[in-house]
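Allow me, if you will, to draw on your knowledge of protein folds for a short while. I am sending you one protein, given as its amino acid sequence and as whole-number tokens for its backbone shapes. Kindly check, if you would, that the fold set down in the tokens agrees with what the sequence suggests. The record follows directly beneath this note:
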Amino acid sequence: MTTELTILTLAALLQVVQFLLYSVTAQMQVGSKAAASPRDKKIELTGTAGRLQRAMNNHFEGLILFTIAAVVISVSGQSTPVTATCAWLYLGARVLYIPAYAFGLTPWRSVIWAVGFFATVTMLVAAVL
């Protein structure tokens, strides 16, 4: 398996961790009754729970582009030290993004996001060159 696919798998596992962090903090905020409800009324999460929810959703969005990049690079046999490094940068940025978002660390949250985004864009560009 290529480094890029290994990192993709680790990024998916990170998404599971993010879901668990969000779920626990959300349930602590709204209670188990609200969590088990049919959610006919929208519940707005605030504070850490809301930030963890937004960080998780942001990772879902970023994971789409990263998945395309990792799969195209791997399937087309274009894995290089540059694309492998970019994959590691993406994962590292996503790991750091969670506490940066949860604790409201501005402007670092945006800087960390940009590192992951541009690492993914670099992989996509490398795939078409």
